[in-house]
Amino acid sequence: MTRFTVLVGLVALCAGCDSNSGPSCGSGTHLLGEACVADEPATPVDAAPDASAPATERFEIRISETLIDANGHTKREVFVYGVRADGSTATDDVVLGLDRASAGTYLRTTLTLGTLGARTHFIPCSDTAADCLGTATLTLARASAPQVILATRSIQLVQAKHISTAAPCRTGGNILYVDGEGAAYNARVTITQASWQTEAITMNGQLKEIVLRATPLRFIDGRDWSLRIDTYALSTALGNGYYLDAERSHFATTGHPGLDVSGGRGCTAVGSSFEVHDLVVSGDQVTSATVTFEQHCSGVTGVMEGCFHYGP
Question: In whole angstroms, what is the distance from residue 199 CA to residue 158 CA?
Fold first, then answer.
């Protein structure tokens, strides 16, 4: 009986076998060992793109920071660009808008797109104004169809707690960014091509002053830029943190930090401020530092602000 059972099993396994070539399985099955088993479903292959599907145009808004201190004056760069459905660069006239007017303003609202897009600046509202703080949305539309929104970018306006912004100086390497429009230095400049020098000065074992210098290689960037900050008139050492109500460096009266940002011309700083980030000093040299500043000059309206980064 046992031998008969085994023979029947072998017959079942070899149903449809060819005695000359070995087991052969029917459609929808395959040989596994000595048995025919059902094929597994084929792994689906991604369908090729439908050539008849229409391509779409694409527009985008970018801003240097989306979490913004609402101090009423520090500009953030806004970059916009577009790509047509055929992949070429859009060259439309476009308009920038805001979902609420209380959020701030643009230096320019109408731009013409080009190969490198187009740029302007956003100026936030002041946190002392009603309906300033909170979420706001930047919008982009064609000038010919301003009601049709092509792109948006959400920002968050918060109570101002930082001095100016370090964003323009966070792109790597040595950078000096100065926005002096309407102030003593009536221009805006970003300097990356320059010879750079630093100095760190201690007194009685305390760091009391640092100097960052940039001599631009391009004439249009000005000449002999320097940033000098000190705490000679304070009882504390100079370090990371906020310094408010600063007066001109080396001339500050008791209780005031010193600040002097100069590009070939100086001023008597009053009511100024600066913030020191990531300060590292080795001996009499600065290894790394980022300083943001807002300098008000006596007798001059407006504020000269910006940042100076030295180091990697």
Answer: 35
Which residues make Cβ contacts (< 8 Å) with residue 51, sequence separation at least 6? none
pLDDT band at residue 11 using 50, 70 and 90 as cut-offs: very low
Q: Which residues contact 252 (CB under 8 A, 6 or more apart)?
A: 230, 232, 233, 246, 258
> Residue 177's closest CA among 307, 309, 78, 294?
307
| Lowest mean pLDDT segment, chosen from 36-45, 191-200, 265-274 | 36-45
pTM for the full model?
0.75
Per-residue pLDDT of 15-25, as tens digits, reads 444 444 455 66
**Cα–Cα distance measured from residue 42 to residue 287, given in angstroms and rounded to the nearest whole number:** 61
**3-class state of residue 8 by DSSP:** helix
229/262 Cα distance (integer angstroms): 12
Q: Across the strands, what pairs with 212?
A: 198, 227
Cα dihedral sign, 13-16-21-27: negative
Residue position matching structure tokens 């005031």: 256
Q: Which position has the higher pLDDT, 220 or 135?
A: 135
Q: What percent of the chain has pLDDT over 90?
A: 70
In the chain, domain spans:
58-159, 167-310
The sheet with strand 93-98 has its strands ordered as: 67-70, 145-159, 134-142, 93-98, 110-112
Which CATH fold topology does 58-159 show?
A: Immunoglobulin-like (2.60.40)
Residue 303, both tokens: 């504020």
